[in-house]
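Researcher: Re-running this chain for the archive, since the previous output was lost when a drive failed. Same request as before.
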Amino acid sequence: MKHLITMESKLTNLREIKSHPNNPRYIRTQEFEDLVKSLKEFPEMLEVRTLVINEKMEVLGGNMRLKAMIEAGWTEALVMQVDWSEEKQREFMIKDNISHGEYDWDKLANEWNEEEYKEWGLKTPDTWTDEEEEVEVKPKDKEVCALCGK
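Model: Regenerated structure tokens:
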């Protein structure tokens, strides 16, 4: 088993950092606005979710956060600089954004405040509604045979 090497993060001027030119991800306008809002409301999150950069100061992990931080008016960020091969950098850029878990919607519905987690940006399934609609089932009118009248 390989041992993990503890790396230190350092405070870096955002003007020195650039988005990776081969970043395969983008963010839609609403999600970007939600991210900016999230960072403004909970900036401490970035103390533990640092930007990951290579030796060229290109972001490998956190490209969207970098853009959101600039939009929010930040001038510095904690970064972790890695010295990996090009192959490892490309692998990290994909793996860093893969979500392997799923939400337990029953637990969320029963043990969490829906208003809070929706405000935090969690999107609920399209099929999840606030209230189930009642559907009134009406009995069909009795059909009468045109030939015999029954």
